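lol forgot to send this yesterday, sorry. struct tokens for the thing we talked abt
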């Protein structure tokens, strides 16, 4: 499976940032790693999602030097983002449950 759906990607980014501040590439790698390679996030989807989440106030960013000694934008979850993660997780689980009910019939 390649691309992650937009709303799902927002949720996955927020969840990934609960581990701490990360730059974009590390976020995409973490999602791929935890999903055992099933989910791949391309840059064309990731960076617009990060901008969207920052505009909502769910994450903030700043420039730092990465572990490879390169400038990278690091993203951090805000208190508002933590609340949104809870609400988005509940909504996602409700959605999955509804789809599962349909698939079982």
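and heres what i got for the seq, position by position
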């Amino acid at each position: 499976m390649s691309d992650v759906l937009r709303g799902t990607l927002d949720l996955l980014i927020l969840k990934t940032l609960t581990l701490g501040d990360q730059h974009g590439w590390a976020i995409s790698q973490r999602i791929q790693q935890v999903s055992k390679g099933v989910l791949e996030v391309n840059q064309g989807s990731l960076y617009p999602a990060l901008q969207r989440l920052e505009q909502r106030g769910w994450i903030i960013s700043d420039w730092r030097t990465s572990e490879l000694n390169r400038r990278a934008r690091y993203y951090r979850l805000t208190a508002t983002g933590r609340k949104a993660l809870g609400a988005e997780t509940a909504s996602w689980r409700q959605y999955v449950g509804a789809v599962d009910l349909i698939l079982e019939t």
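Residues 6-104 form a domain with the Arc Repressor Mutant, subunit A fold (CATH 1.10.10.10). anyway ping me if u want another try
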